[in-house]
Amino acid sequence: MKKFYLFTMLFLFAFFTNAQIKVQGVPRNDLSGNATQLNIANTAANISFSDIQYWVGTGSNQAAFVVQWNDSKNPDALVWGFRWDGNATGEDMLKAIAKADHRFFTLLYQGTQFGTAIGGLGFDLNGQNSNALIKSGNATYPLYPVDGIVNTTAYDFDDYTAQDTSDHWVSGWYNGFWSYYVKNPTDADFGFSGVGATSRILQNGSWDVWNYSPMSGSFPISSTLTPVSPYVTSTNFTNGFFMVNEEWFGHTNGSVNFIGNNGQINYRVYSNANNNHAFGATTQYGTIYGDKFYFVSKQAADGGDSQYTPGGRLVVANAQTMQKIATFNNIGGGDGRSFLGVNEHKGYIGASNGIYLFDIDNMQVGSLVSGTGGGSQYSGQIGNMIRTSKYVFAVKQAAGVLVIDPATDTVVNTIAGPFSSIVHAKDGSIWAIQNQKLALIDPATFAVQYFNIPTTKYADTWGAWNAGSFTASNTENTLYWIKAGTGFNPGNQIVKFDVTAKTFNESFITLPGQTGTYKQIPYGAALRVNPSTGNLILNTTESGFGAHYQKNWIHTYDVNGNLTNTQTLNDYYWFPALAVFPDNTAPIVSNTFPSQVTAANVTTIDLKTMVSDGDSFGASIVKTVKSNNNPSVVSAEINANEELVITPLATGFAEIVISFNSNGKVVERTLDINSLGSTLATVEVKKLEFGIYPNPVTDILYIKTQEKVGNISIYDASGKLVNMQFNNGQINVSMLPKGMYILKAITDKAVYQQKLIKK
């Protein structure tokens, strides 16, 4: 009996001496018992739940989450709060905090027989957004967290280091490990958890502490826990530019990042500002107009997205705060392509089946602009659109460039040709591009002059449509684009065209990263010019398809083609589509704009030289006569050459207000006019050269003249301009109410004005 008792005691001694320790539920024979035995009683007494500043989640239950790095960097032991309803685990809490707080990141081995293993935890201490990991010293391909998580498929945690050595980061399994301590409301002290985060069931009022334990010995839980301040995304979207992203089809809806001039990249700024809402599927276009940001996606939603709430084919947000204003799944029946602000009340939506009106005041999608439809989804789609002071020019696949009068929303001309894109140059000229041709389009007469691109070509962007690399500078009178490649190899050079000299530089810039097996290639529109600085913004990805597309760079070049900055995005399938620049300035009217004019005869004022905008094209500034308080004394209109034409009708005084609309920002100027008498006597001498009939008229009014008519306007008795279409020498006035009107015609030789009676 004594021998049996002695044997039993020796067995129990050996058992307890070599008992297995479970790290996150995993039995560890390589650890001695003293590796985790700590004096940890009452270590969290220095703070309570009321001291926690950053709470993640919602619900009636709450728990505290603590991470202690023991790396001599302060503050060390950080604490967050987690709220929930129903059931939640320690893993749920960790992942929710990692997703919400972009400073916190973790290395996980998910799906083991013991649940998810926590291999490493980090925190961006210096606010540089550089929370990338380097595995086995491979700094060429750092690993960036998605929703705060870098995943691995082995217990290889010791192989990872932080890209930014100034941040909190510790990982390990064999050379140290993350100990897990828990405390429930009924517990007096913390205890070492024998299970991992997956099996840990949270209780209302519980505490979880992750405390890194090096192999040399464990640290007690700190007596000083520091509450983490809430994560605040950037709300200043003026100093930098946006990058609209297609995002990863089948996984994530569209998004937008903001790249600050300070080098900081703010990811998914719209989603951050709107509780994880996103855009539609394959967001391809964005533009800012009137302090509103319009995002256009091809489809309404990506069925594979479970993390972000889709927003539809058109999403409208506040351009200064990113707060959502409105979303639209249906934009007329087609897929989204582009958007153009026409005036402060109206926009045009470019779609796969035509152009649709958009009511900016009431946030409503309207009807199809007549003449813009036709063709199938991939043979009649609308591409880029630009606004001049007088017209809208829109590229339509296969048809050419549609010229639209925004006053009547009608197509007044079509410039036929296989065009891909269109831009406005600094000098006011309009340029459209084909495969190997540039077309110079007169903004008033629509006459076209072609210039052959000497050796290179421009890539066709109609197939899987994107906005294309064709872009213009607002500071230099130049155009840029990326030359087409061959086969599956995109082009690697930026072409520069001098608008003034009409000369090509087909190798102005060679894209960076052209050595090695995998090269940098353009993606999406890939190239845009910052309107306020003239700098070129180039976005590239890595060739090789598949996982290579997780590598993305944004390069900045100055006007001389010098590379001045490169930003590397966190590894992810962003598929950047288009750079968009903030509209920070309003139009500025020159002090040479007169405050008063004495008019004895027809007087013209060139408004093109009177207004400018530091971050918008001056030629696209829309000039209109907003009001005329005495139309019986003087008529005032703006012609196709952007000239204010003042015609005296009688002796007296009038006050007119001119409106200048630059990209939705409007300023006004008042002009006092002293009219010295009527100019109709001059017109009477020219009766034989100009006439209208019948007068009175019921439906069709005919114009008789041998001169070239540049513009015809009709005003009602109050002086208000009536929108009527002059076509082939005649005007259909059948829709006009009965009454007296004034018809004014400008020809290449004179200005005519006659009374018109509609019966």
From TrEMBL:
Residues 692-757 form the Secretion system C-terminal sorting domain. Keywords: Signal. Residues 1-19 form the signal peptide. Pfam families: DUF5074 (PF16819), Por_Secre_tail (PF18962). It comes from the Bacteria. NCBIfam families: Por_Secre_tail. This is DUF5074 domain-containing protein. It comes from Chryseobacterium phosphatilyticum.
